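User: Working on a comparison across species. This one is Cation transporter from Teichococcus oryzae. Can you predict its structure so I can line it up against the others?
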Amino acid sequence: MERAAKLAAGSLLVAVLVLAIKALAWWLTGSVALLADALESIVNVAAAGAALVAVRLSAQPPDANHPYGHAKAEYFSAVLEGALIIVAALLILRESWGAFQAPSAPELPALGLAISVAATVINAVWSGVLFRNGRRMRSPALLADARHLLADVVTSVGVVVGVGAVAVTGILWLDPLLAALTAVNILVSGFRLLRESVGGLMDEAVEPGLLARIRALVSQEAAGALEAHDLRTRHAGRTTFVEFHLVVPGDMRVAEAHEICDRIEGALKGELGSAVITIHVEPEGKAKHHGVLVL
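Assistant: Here's the predicted structure for Cation transporter from Teichococcus oryzae:
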């Protein structure tokens, strides 16, 4: 978790640096498209700060008021980031409309574009770092930040192309048009991030591929039992929760049933990493004849 906190702090520093670079590019050129890019970077700073707080909070161990831990704090950070992205998109649309009504040519376009490209490269590199570590640590906050930065990279590339086109062709309305398209791209990114984050808060089941793997492991490791049913799963940050009913022969000793449960838990934790496994043992009269059949 210390690694996640350091990455979140790094994101905040990168966001501040990129904001300063993009603001300089806009100040030099007066381009509305570059202004739109800079406005999104303000959101990056706020989101990175929220992610840092969430990662630190999620690292706290379970307590009396939060017996399942604090991992879901990262989902709140991701929801906030999605909302901020949408707000930034709306601000950009407002600036674009004003520029459509009174278009103007960017000043010093070559220098402004060079500065913007430098900021884009920084974002692209850091996005790759966050994706790699966020997936490995299964951190919703880091992955949300990575997706946001990737959307920012795509947006910045479009802006650079658009401002360059204005400088070459002299068609002034291309600048606000690119800003408006930037806003649409940001809106889509924001709504997608909100959807994924709210899914985590609503305890959505794990993805189908992982669920199939969990079912296969239960089936393989439950030798001696009869079946497993009512399997339920969910994620809370880096932790996966798995619970199910395990049906065993009615005359099986408690120690034998416990040994089967330990075997299943060991296999699942080996696959899932951080996991909480809850198994309710039942006699064969409770069998439902569906669910996970034991091999």
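For your comparison, note: The chain is about 70% helix and 10% strand.

User: Helpful, thanks.
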